[in-house]
């Protein structure tokens, strides 16, 4: 599965802890992350991350494009609900695309844990049915 990892500045440490805790599960999948989040995860784990641009510089939109192209299966986006984000329209667009295309989305650690445990158990394998023509690289 293709999994996106995104974290606002105040949630990056939570994402690092999450990636460390679930590294054995995450390493079995293709991971994408926005710039700084991906860099920090790679510095603190042995996970391979396909790094995109920083969220405010277009990374959120890159992940959104992958969703629209049927190339993303799960989005783990640790949002900071207490801090205004200058690129809020991009964030809302990303969340909307997850809803439009039926991509499972976690916006906090508790929901991310449920999703990752579901991935481990094969409960999200329905994505393979939804995306039957997906190749190993995630392209249809």
UniProtKB/TrEMBL annotation:
Active-site feature positions: 60 (proton donor/acceptor)
InterPro entries, sorted: Methylgl_synth (IPR004363), Methylglyoxal_synth_AS (IPR018148), MGS-like_dom (IPR011607), MGS-like_dom_sf (IPR036914)
Residue ranges constituting the MGS-like domain according to the UniProt record: 1-140
Residues involved in substrate binding: 8, 12, 34-37, 54-55, 87
Keywords: Lyase
A GO molecular function held by the record: methylglyoxal synthase activity
CDD domains for this protein: MGS (cd01422)
Catalytic activity reported: dihydroxyacetone phosphate = methylglyoxal + phosphate
Catalytic class of the enzyme: lyase
Top-level taxon of the source organism: Bacteria
The protein's Enzyme Commission number: 4.2.3.3
Biological role stated in the UniProt entry: Catalyzes the formation of methylglyoxal from dihydroxyacetone phosphate.
Family statement drawn from the similarity comment of this UniProt entry: Belongs to the methylglyoxal synthase family.
HAMAP family for the chain: Methylglyoxal_synth (MF_00549)
UniProt name for this protein: Methylglyoxal synthase
């Amino acid at each position: 599965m293709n999994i996106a990892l995104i974290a606002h500045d105040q949630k990056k440490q939570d994402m690092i802890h999450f990636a460390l805790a679930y590294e054995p599960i995450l390493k079995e999948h293709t991971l994408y992350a926005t710039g700084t989040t991906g860099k920090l995860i790679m510095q603190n784990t042995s996970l391979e991350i396909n790094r995109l641009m920083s969220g405010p510089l277009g990374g959120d939109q890159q992940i959104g494009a992958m969703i629209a192209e049927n190339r993303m299966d799960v989005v783990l986006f640790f949002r900071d609900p207490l801090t205004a984000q200058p690129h809020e329209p991009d964030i809302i667009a990303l969340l909307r695309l997850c809803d439009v295309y039926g991509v499972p989305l976690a916006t906090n650690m508790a929901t991310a844990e449920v999703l990752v445990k579901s991935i481990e158990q094969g409960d999200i394998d329905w994505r393979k049915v939804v995306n039957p023509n997906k190749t190993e690289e995630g392209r249809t």
